[in-house]
Write a structure and sequence with these properties.
By secondary structure, the protein is of the alpha/beta class. The protein has helices at about 20-35, 85-95, 110-125, 135-140, and strands at about 65-70, 75, 80, 100-105, 130. The protein contains 4 helices and 5 strands, in the order αβββαβαβα. Strands 3-2-1-4-5 form a 5-stranded mixed sheet. A hairpin with a 5-residue loop joins strand 1 (about 65-70) and strand 2 (about 75). The longest helix is centred in the N-terminal third of the chain and has 17 residues, at about 20-35. The N and C termini lie far apart (about 80 Å).
């Protein structure tokens, strides 16, 4: 190791790193304190097994399907119903159900506005999700 002894008499241009290290340590401490306080994600609720072994009532385990025939007649789960009675009947069916899902199946020869009218009635009855039944969905593909 060599050491320069008083030669040259000029100004030194070395940086003083002591304040820089002090600032770095303060920032390190701040980030160490803040890190545990940040949220790590969303709370998820895992499905719980049912407490009792009784099966659900038969009207709650069925899928609700609105079928529109060629002539424009409407059926709710194979039960004929009028267009004006569809909304109140849907509200009545979904009054006690937690999952509000209904499927609409229209005849292929119908115009889409007839199917859209059924979707609009279902949305007006407070249905969250409305699905369209296609031949592929019906076949299970």
């Amino acid at each position: 190791m060599s050491m320069a002894v008083g030669s040259g008499g000029g100004a030194k241009s070395d940086i003083n790193v002591t304040p820089l290290i002090d600032v770095l340590l303060v920032l390190l401490i701040i980030f160490m304190v803040i890190t545990p306080l940040t949220p790590h994600g969303l709370d998820a609720l895992a499905p719980q097994p049912p407490t009792d072994k009784t099966p659900p009532p038969p009207d709650q385990d069925r899928t609700v399907v609105i079928v529109i025939d060629k002539d424009g007649s409407v059926k709710l789960n194979q039960e004929p119903i009028s267009w004006s009675g569809l909304g109140p009947r849907l509200e009545d069916v979904f009054k006690t159900r937690a999952e509000r899902v209904v499927f609409v199946k229209g005849d292929p020869s119908l115009e889409y506005r007839t199917v859209a009218q059924a979707i609009d009635i279902a949305k007006g009855a407070g249905i969250d999700k409305v699905g369209l039944m296609t031949p592929q969905v019906e076949a299970g593909h």
